[in-house]
Amino acid sequence: MGRKLALLALFASLPAFAQDRRVVTATGGRRVALVIGNDAYPWKRLTNAVNDARALAAMLPRVGFDTRDITLVTDANLRQMQRAGREFIEKLRPDDLALVYYSGHGVEVRGENFLIPVDFPSDATELEARDEAYSAQQLLRGLEETQARTRILILDACRNNPLRATRAAGGGLARMDGKGTLVVFATSAGSTADDNPRGSNGLFASQLLKALPTPGVTLGQMMQDVARAVYRDSGARQTPAIYGLLLEDFPLVAGVNPVRPNPDAATETWALIRDSRNAEDFEAFANAYPGSDLAPGARIRAAQLRRTAAPVVSGTLHTGETKVNPKDGLTYVWIGPGTFMMGCSPGDNECQDNEKPAHQATIPVGFWMAQTPVTQEAYQRVAGANPSETKGDKLPVVSVTWDEARNYCAAVGTRLPTEAEWEYAARAGTTQSRYGELDRIAWYSGNVGDRRHVEVAQKQPNAWGLYDMLGNVGQWTADWYEEGKTRVRKGSQATNPSSLMRVSHRFGAQPDSGAPGRGFRCAGD
Length: 525
Fold this sequence. Notes:
With 525 residues, this protein is α/β, with parallel strands linked by helices. It is built from 14 helices and 19 strands. Mean pLDDT is 83; it is low at 1-27, 164-170 and 308-319.
């Protein structure tokens, strides 16, 4: 996801109470919860949404909720979600604490957020979403009409966008400002959340479950702590957002507020941004804390990032600076930062649905890219093995799994490129579907004959000086294609037809599968 300015997405969105350490004790009323978790989507099953809902429902009695006042709904269709929401709202009284938690797919359509039931049609369009999904705004309005004293709506949604193929808005939900209601998104508006398929709970839910039973921590303070923990543990890829306002802020669990930093805010904020590659993070820090000893360093870091993030100059690009990696003997090319249109190229009639819509992507910091796919000679040198069926020192190594490719790159001090980095490097400034005349730049089914692969660097390179970005061998990238299941591969193999020899072409492959056409190249910072 394109990362928003962390300070704005996290701290500026926090309501004023989040900075206030005073404890206000709630008087009277019940603690009532509606917890919904949906996993069983036939077209895009999730791993942890139901786990998250069940774990939260099991936790709530420990923080003052009577089990009779907890409604748990899992794998619900639209009618079940609507009925659960209606019955929950009808039972609320003026002095109650009302908590609604939803975990599952969510989508934004023209500024309105919808929670997706498990019977949502896989081919639904934007207009149909209004009839086939549960409006989060409608749920919020219902909550606020009850006048329950404390209202909290948590949307652990936007795992991805089921309408994306039909040109709905991009991943993520639209901002929601409650009137006397605290609205919490597991990730910032317009972004997607991590289902954490290798764990037992999603990333946001894991932190929420840890924070809930802490004695003496107010609701607002707790949500702020959860947001920081998710931001930290995701490596700044997921930034929860907090909107609206609590009229009362009090601890769910009585006790002494644990000794914690009420720390120097500048130091706490610096810990969140110090590894950022976004100049705006450091500029915002320096503006927010001008008197901090860290402010001068923040300004210097911002200036450094600004220099390296200068946009690519239009026109003919020249071969970048090169260096040889002594660990594998391969040459790497420096790829400068810039912004480009990623996805289906203008006028390309061979694009597939998963290449649409084209969208602007920014590579904020330059990186090194291997000039060729990893060769069998290099792979043997580093890994001590060669899984390729047809042997040859200068042939690309193939039949490599995603883990094997990642481990190789790590062993030589590099990494797999992201999908955006790969496509940006392949385009080398062009907006066309290819970076040159097909027969001059790529080995494919129309010119490879009976060979499966050809020695690397036998065709013309692109403007960056990169060979075999198209044709010869498909290449693993770091990104998920289908979260938890398949990884993105780019750059089609030599046995593929010309229709697949395009820089925007992408497809998913099982990471544990090392098919004969699968190779890779590494990138470095």
